[in-house]
Design brief:
alpha+beta, Immunoglobulin-like, five-stranded mixed beta sheet, four-stranded mixed beta sheet, 3 helices
């Protein structure tokens, strides 16, 4: 009897995850705007599975250098210059745990090779905090 209960709870958990993924990118987050090379807001709080739009108001192409747990993957995200506005959309992992931090740097494509070779600011000088959907909804209701 116990084995059957475990099987049912695993099936229910899988169905919940599948339903969560089918619901789309989650509640709307207004986004992060880069002006003068500086992103705002910082830090940015988003719910799991939520879209994270970046908008560039500058006439400069940037790339976003991402870090998780201080580690930088070998891939960056291109953020085009405004024309009238360059955009890119990331997404918070639907399976991320509450309080997960993703640090990032905004770096101009025209930045010198020496500046790019310098170590990143503490593994990323800007932060996206992934919260539980419940926490994000409570924050929005209070705000």
């Amino acid at each position: 009897m116990k084995a059957k209960a475990n099987k049912n709870s695993k099936s229910e958990a899988k169905n919940h995850k599948d339903k969560k993924r089918k619901e789309g990118l989650g509640t709307p987050f207004p986004g992060i705007t880069v002006t003068g090379g500086i992103p705002s807001p910082n830090p940015a709080a988003v719910a799991t599975g939520e879209a994270i739009p970046f908008a560039n108001t500058d006439p400069t192409d940037y790339y976003l250098q991402l870090f998780v747990n201080g580690n930088h993957p070998a891939v960056d995200v291109f953020l085009p210059k405004s024309s009238p506005m360059g955009t890119v959309t990331l997404m918070a992992d639907p399976d991320a745990t509450n309080g997960t931090h993703c640090s990032y740097n905004v770096i101009a494509m025209t930045q010198s090779r020496a500046a790019k070779a310098a170590p990143p600011a503490a593994g990323g000088s800007h932060v996206i905090v992934i919260t539980s959907s419940t926490a994000a909804k409570a924050k929005a209701a209070a705000g």
